[in-house]
Each structure stands twice: as structure tokens, then as C-alpha cells.
Amino acid sequence: MSLNIFWFLPTHGDGRYLGTSEGGRTVDHSYLSQIAQAADHLGYGGVLIPTGRSCEDSWLVASSLIPLTKRLKFLVALRPGIISPTVAARQAATLDRLSNGRALFNLVTGGSPDELAGDGLHLSHAERYEASAEFTRIWRKLLVGETVDFNGKHIQVKGAKIIYPPIQQPHPPLYFGGSSEAAQELAAEQVELYLTWGEPPAAVAEKIAQVREKAAKHGRTVRFGIRLHVIVRETNEEAWAAADKLIAHLDQDTIDRARESLSHYDSVGQQRMLALHNGTKDNLEIYPNLWAGVGLARGGAGTALVGDAQTVAARIKEYAALGIDTFVFSGYPHLEESYRVAELLFPLLDVAKPEEPKRIGNIKAYGEIVANDFLPNTAVSES
Fold this sequence. Notes:
This protein is an alpha/beta fold. The protein has one domain (about 5-380): TIM Barrel. It is about 35% helix and about 20% strand. The chain contains twelve helices and 17 strands. The chain has helices spanning about 30-40, 60-65, 85-100, 115-120, 125-145, 180-190, 200-215, 235-245, 250-265, 270-275, 310-320, 335-345; strands at about 5-10, 15, 25, 45-50, 75-80, 105, 150, 155-160, 175, 195, 225-235, 285, 290, 305-310, 325-330, 365, 380. The longest helix has 19 residues, at about 125-145.
């Protein structure tokens, strides 16, 4: 099985150390362009763009980088409860068309309760997943060309439709990550690829089995991916020294403050990440070559694969054997590490090499839309 290897755009900041401004970098359009173009050149299949108030807007970042890349796909966030499914479908179709089919979408249901409240979302954990399921059902139907009437508990639309379809049919792939029962049910019913954060293989295997079983009840199959940091060097000693260096400026007070803040999240996945380390710099290797040090200062994905190229490649293959075909990697700083990961790991793995998409020749030329709608009896030509 060929592996899809993605990289990460650090729109919330980047640097050589965690938990300090020392060695930090200005994350501006020039720097993000360098990372995206490096990933495109090196053969990564796509880039994940994070979302949240500490990040630059993922849609605008993707839109600005599409013209600067040729093959790279952009995984951007859909935020149920913050935007209507009809507007989100229209945006998704637009991004897919303008990128010539290089748009992917990441359904993000949770986050910081304070941040969600600031965005006007005051639903409980269970209610957010109810709303996300309604959102996704509408979003998918719109993108396959249906006119939608929907009267749900959280969302109501009447006569919803989009005029310009996406290039990817029936719709661009939908990614999603979540560890709760409700999240797994949503993934089983609605998404193409289920993402997990990096936990020991046994825990990952358990989640995969649970989602597969739930998907089978819907008559569906789901692909699987994993989100991990990577610290790979020519020797194991160099790699572990680099891991130690990454948190060299991270003091206990900063660790405690981060842990306190993250403990208030109602995300099951975030609580699982916190449980992997003891809130100190001690005993962070939670499985051979799986290191929980990143989670001491960072929310979300908090583990890294650490070791020489052969060792890290073996761990990647161990996850792949569980059924994972997509790996979303990152490393600090993200520009240099994109090269290091590609140069050291790609030769040891069966990496799916993306090709530059050909221009689609059968997109309809609609002409000017009449009366805010497409009228089927108006002239339509094939370009």
C-alpha cells in the first residue's frame, strides 16, 4: 500500500524550541510560501492547515498558496456551528474549482470552550456532534447537486443549493478526527478519512477497529490517517538529542500552565494526549521511539516519532500495518524539517507521489447567471 505523506503549515507559529519565543520565527506569507513550495517540490501529497483563533485563517492561507504550487493539496477546516453548511459548500466548491481539484476538507467540531464561546458557539459536546452531523449531511448533498430542505434540531435550510459544482466528484474528500463515541459515529456515517493523533499502536488499532465496525453498520468503509510530529536524524543519538533540545527552554511553570489550560477542553482526544505524559520532562518515551514531549506545551497532536531513518520508517510501517494510509507529519522548524523528513524517510517508504492535475476540459461554461440562479434552458456550452 502506497502511503500518502502530508506536511503541516505552522500558521500559529514556528521556531527551534517549544514554549519560548527564543528561536521563534515570523510566520508571514513569505515563510508559509517557502514551506508550501518545499512540500510541493519534495513530493508531499498535501499540507494540513490548522484552525483556531491562534492561527491565520486556513481558507485564506490556502487560497493564497494555490497559485504558488502545482501538485500540493490543501486540507482546510470546516467549522460546523460557526458557518452555515450552504455557505461552506459554496466555499468548498469554489476552492476545489480554483485549485483544479486540490482541495481537501477537515471537519473540526471541537476546540477550546472559551474560543468556541467567543465565536458564538455555546453548544455542549454532545450537541456539537449533533449539529456537525446535520451540517455534514447538508454539505454533502449540496456538493452532489441536490437542492436541500432540512429541518433539524440545530440547522434548518429551505431550498438550499449551489450552482457551481466542485471538480472532485461526488465531492472533495472529507477528513475528520475525534476520539469520543459521538465522534466515531459521525466518522462512520459521514467522512472518507478518519484521523487519529499519535498514540501507541495498540490504542490506535482499537480506535480503527471501533470505527470500522461502526462504518460497516452503515454499509460504508473509511480510510485512516494519523497526525504525528517527526524528529529524524542520521543516528538515534542525534535524534534523541534533538528531542531534548526542542524542549530545552520549556520550564515547569510553562508546562503547568499549558496543562491547566488544556485540562478544561471537553475534547476526549485532548484528554488522551494529556494522559500520555505526566506533566514533566521525565519518562516521555511512551512506546519505543514514540515521544510525548511535544504535548507538554502544545494542544492537539502531542507526540513525535524519534530516531534514525530506519527506526522511524519501521514505526511508520507498524502504523501502516494497522490500516493507516495517510500520515500528516510536522517538525520544528517546519521548513528545514520538511527537507530532512523527505530526504531521510521517503527513500525507505512506498510514498505515493502526487502528479500535477491536468486541467479539466469538461467544466460547463455557464455564462452570466440569470436572476441569481442557473436557468437550464439558457445556453450552456462545454469548454
